[in-house]
Amino acid sequence: MSISGGVIAVFLLVRMGVEWGQTPTPTLSIVAWLILAATAVGVNLAVHEFSSRMPVWLFLLALGLCAIVVALDLAGSWGFPGTATFPTAAPAVGAFLLTIVTLRESRDITLAALALGVIMGAATLFEARSDMLALGPDILGVALAVVPPLVGASIVQAFRRMVQRELDLVLVQSTVSQPRFAVGMLASEQLARLDLDAETLLDDVAQGRTALPLAASTATTAASLATQLRVHLIEGRTETWLHHAITESEFLGPVVALSDPAGLAGLLSPTQRDGLLLTIWLLLVDTQRSGASVSLRLGPIAPTQGVGLHHRVRFPIELTTTGVSRRRVDPETWQAIRAVGPHVDSNRAGSLRVDIECSVDNPADA
Predict the structure, then answer these.
(1) Contact present, 67 and 35 (Cβ < 8 Å)
(2) Extended strands (E) in the chain
(3) What angle do CA 319, 321, 326 make, to 5 degrees?
(4) Is 181 helix (H, G, I), strand (E, B) or coil?
(5) How far apart, in Å, are the Cα atoms of 115 and each of 71, 142, 187, 276?
């Protein structure tokens, strides 16, 4: 992005040299270029000091200086009717925005680029001209100012979205190796903090730093720790890995509904768990439609026939989607479904439904 912005800035600087004899007030444009160059260098040094971060105040300061650059350049390049000159330092502000597109939210860069385009467009429309064909250079200037930062912001936003989804997938896949009933990732961190607080309190009592009987405040703290630990132990016996994978995912949580009252998801083997989680993920990632969702219902357990220690438990998994058509499903999704068990799929009202017959080892034989 920085290299692209630099190339655009060099092109505009060369263009200013070409227009030198036709520019009404070149001194103002030169001052605008100097301010823009000082702003770019200053922002680069400041960002380096702030560990590649751009605070809000620095961004607003840079925008204020860029506004001065635009005002000076538009005033300096206000040409006579029929001339083919256009501003050069003002479009270079768009190149500057392109160089900082990774340091700020894409929304901030987009709004700044659109504001720059509106100002330059208004100046172009209000400038007197005898030939409408002279609008061509001005349109080029507005395009050079607006299009690069908008494209850069779009690319960076798409990249950020992709990275966030992949990181989210990595985090939820860590739940695949959990026991049948366990606490989630966030609860594990809180449980570790509670455990440290409890160990510290017990060590203080054992070393004599805290006298017995406990003071009222210390006793209240100990009772609170005990209550929170019991709550976590109870939660760990009622929620499966799949529940935590969905609820703790920023991507899956809002669009996936799970119904598993018997906790059957905890009986799945690691391969089946990974296949089911990947199925949900791919069904939602592959679709581009807004409002897509997935509903999962596990159970009830089907009656089994035969005797012996090695009979298996069978139960259905009903996967119903909204806004996901069968023709948009990636082949890798079907491979992930087959890892869970035999399935039958159907298309109802333009959405996909998959009924999976899942077979797992009977936990009573373990």
Answers:
(1) no
(2) 256-259, 293-298, 312-322, 343-348, 351-361
(3) 100
(4) strand
(5) 13, 11, 45, 47
Work out the angle between the directed axes of helices 89-99 and 56-76 (0-180°, nearest 10). 160
Write b or e for each residue in 247-274: b if 16 or more Cβ atoms lie within 10 A of its Cβ, otherwise e. Answer: ebbebbeebbebebeebbbbbbeeebbb
Q: What is the CA radius of gyration of the chain?
A: 31
Instruction: Output the six-digit token pair for 53.
Output: 């971060």
Q: Tell me the pLDDT tens digit for each residue of 146-166.
A: 999 999 999 999 999 889 888
Provide the pLDDT for residue 289: 56
Element (H, E) at 106: helix 106-126
Least confident residue range of 7-16, 76-85, 201-210, 247-256:
76-85
Residues 6+ apart with CB under 8 A from 237: 181
**Cβ neighbours of 39 (radius 10 Å):** 20
Residue labelled with tokens 């609170």 = 224
Q: Please tell me the pTM assigned to this model.
A: 0.69
Cα four-point dihedral sign 98, 70, 123, 109: positive
